[in-house]
Amino acid sequence: MSKPEFVYVTYIETTIEKLWQALTDGEFTERYWFGYRVASDWKVGSHYGFARQGKPSVEGKVLQCDPPRRLAYTWDPCSEDARRERTSRVTFDLEPRDRIVKLTVTHDNLDEGGKTLRDISGGWPMVMASLKSFLETGRELPADLPSCAA
Amino acid sequence: MEIDRFKPTLVYAIYIAATPEQVWQALTSAEFSRKYFFGNAVEVDLRTGGAFLVRAPDGSLHTSGEVIECEPTKKLTVTFNVNWPALIEKLGQTLVTYEIEPAGDVVRLTLTEAHDRPISDDILSGGRQGWPAILSSLKSLLETGHALDIRMAPPQRMLDALQALGITTP
Questions:
Q1: Residue B20: how many CB atoms within 10 A of its CB?
Q2: What's the pLDDT tens digit per position in A33-84?
Q3: Range of the domain at A93
Q4: Residue B143 contacts A, CB cutoff 8 Å
Q5: Cα(A149)–Cα(B102) distance, rounded to whole angstroms?
Q6: Closest Cα in chain A to B108
Q7: Domain interval for residue B150
Q8: Chain A residues with beta carbon closer than 8 angstroms to that of B124
Q9: Measured between alpha carbons, how far is residue B65 from residues A45, A71, B52, B61 in Å?
Q10: B16 touches chain A (CB under 8 A)
Q11: Domain tally for chain A?
């Protein structure tokens, strides 16, 4: 892993299959990822993208797809400020433990002190908390959290 | 105690659909903490200088410390020293701060672990492994009414590093 990196771990009472679906299915991400819908065929090398109300926010390439254990993609924010930074990488690792899944998000290959590092450090805890609430209670967190991810 | 000398080594933020009062109660009550803190019970005298204790399920003292800052429903800073002989002598005290902030209709809880000297990644790995599990379980408890039953292996990397420093662990 290259520095700086951002690692966030959470534990969710769900099945590994449901968690995988929540990460890869746009119907689901639109619910808990504050309106951002993901689309891809999830083949290695394929394009994927997040969009809210049709407006692209983040896109990139699928680097690794091993359902339901590991998903990795490049992270290219569509804003002009972030365009000047190098392309970073997001990896999701899913580990089942009885009725719980440990989910680790690793975001690396980031620019030191860059806008992307700042944004994702605030963003991942919101997205992960909303995902956990969505899977455990059926209710995502409200989309009006101060400053949203993606 | 000069808390300015302590530098953060771990910051973990989690959003919880609950009120600041509920989160505060969960952090400071023995009954709640037993459910999400691997069976350990927090006993805290909520005033500056008051005792902060964590008891293991068998009643023995797991962690002891002192309240450094206490602003009910907003902020609690404590020294958090696991009761292993020679731990403080070798590594200094550990400072833990919980901050509770309203975020729209929910709450952001931020945990910060800080030390007054450089601590190796091997030793810090214990907290990095433990805190996300404890706080994930706290969130589940407040949102669903039940905590998570997380089976976790002992933090071997940290235990080995402590032994190497001559700190006796169970």
A1: 17
A2: 999 999 999 999 999 999 999 999 999 999 999 999 999 999 999 987 777 8
A3: 6-137
A4: yes
A5: 18
A6: A126
A7: 8-164
A8: none
A9: 52, 42, 5, 11
A10: yes
A11: 1
Residue A95 backbone class (left: φ over 0; alpha: ψ -120 to 50; beta: rest): beta
Q: What is the CATH number of the domain that holds A89?
A: 3.30.530.20
Is B71 part of the contact surface with chain A (CB cutoff 8 Å)? no
**What are B23-70's pLDDT values in tens digits?**
999 999 999 999 999 999 999 999 999 999 999 999 999 999 999 999
Distance of CA B109 to the CA centre of its chain: 12
Nearest CA-CA partner of A60 in A90, A34, A92, A28: A90
CATH number at residue B117: 3.30.530.20
**Residue A45 distance to chain B (closest CA, Å):** 32
Q: Is residue A146 part of a domain?
A: no
Contact of B145 with chain A, judged by CB distance below 8 Å, is answered with no
Residue A45 lies in a domain: yes
pLDDT of the residue at A81 = 74
* Interchain contact, A125 vs B140, CB within 8 Å: no
- State which residue of chain A sits closest to B152, comparing Cα positions: A97
Is A141 in contact with B136 (Cβ distance < 8 A)?
A: no
- Residues from chain B contacting residue A11 (CB–CB below 8 Å): 132-133, 136-137, 148, 150
Is residue A147 in a domain?
no
The number of folded domains in chain B is: 1
Name the amino acid, one letter, at A24. Answer: T
